[in-house]
Amino acid sequence: MLSLQLAHQLSGRHILLVGAGEVAMTRIPKLLPTGCKLTVIAPEIHKDMWKHFDVPEDDDTVEYTDKHWSPEKNKVFQLFRREFRNTDIVLHGNGLADSADAQSFLNGELDPIESYDHSKASGWHMILTCIPDPVISERIYRGAKLVLGQHVLCNVADNPPLCDFYFGSNVTLGKGGKPIQIMLSSNGNSPRFTALLKNEIERQFGDLPIGESVAKLGQLRARVRKISEENCPATLSKPELIKYRMEWIRNCTDSFGVSHCHEMNVDKTVTLFEEMFADLSLEQPDNETYMREYLE
């Protein structure tokens, strides 16, 4: 059975990590760059984890909340230096809407787009346990499903049947611009092999200017979309416009290829699109012309 691999958007969402040892340390660098509001609960903190808190290691504070936290800060939001408590399941609410609001929506009386305050129903988006006690770990998992509902995502370290998702090995290619993320997963069968494969991918592709390439392609795509939306012929339907735009961008990207996208002159390439869009043409210049006229 295969897993559905998704690029999960976690910015500003509450994530609970129970445990702060060696295994928990492997989760931190994957979670913090997402901009999530990470809460750590553990009586003992791994010495290397302190750099991820805005509180000194020798501080004896039992409960700490970063009042100046922001998604860009790349720091843990909350720390509780104690054992897990059952009430921690609802530390930030139960993630459920007020029953009256829910019924109003079902009755067609409430428009959640216009009049509903979504901050009223926060709760944990994900719960992760990284502790050596399998009984407590399962109790947290079962309790979360019981109280918050089956939709809450849980991950119990080293217990695949109690994992709604796997972390896998994550490869980030591109140090500048917009990096590309690749996830490798053996679906819990061999984390070590996926780690070896990750190292091999980094060895082969790590030096490519992928970040710059993706950044320029992102600029191109945004400008092409704006131009096409603002200058769409009346005879062209919305689905036809989207189809044309996607095919043009695909053909253009293929022409530059992995080796030259970072050298693209975005302004000249946008001008090319404007000229071709005027005639709804998809006849791209040949590769030699692209290399000669549309690189910086």
Query: What is the domain total for the residues?
Result: 3
CATH superfamily of the largest domain: NAD(P)-binding Rossmann-like Domain
What number is the mean pLDDT? 91
Strand content: 5-15%
CATH architecture of the largest domain: 3-Layer(aba) Sandwich
Secondary structure tally: strands: 8
State the helicity in percent bands: 25-40%
Please give the order of strands in the largest beta sheet.
3-4-2-1-5-6
How would you classify the helix and strand content by structural class? Answer: alpha/beta
Task: Give the overall form.
Answer: globular
Poorly predicted parts: none
Q: Span between N and C termini?
A: 46 Å
Summary?
This protein has 296 residues and is of the alpha/beta class. 38% of the residues lie in helices and 12% in strands.
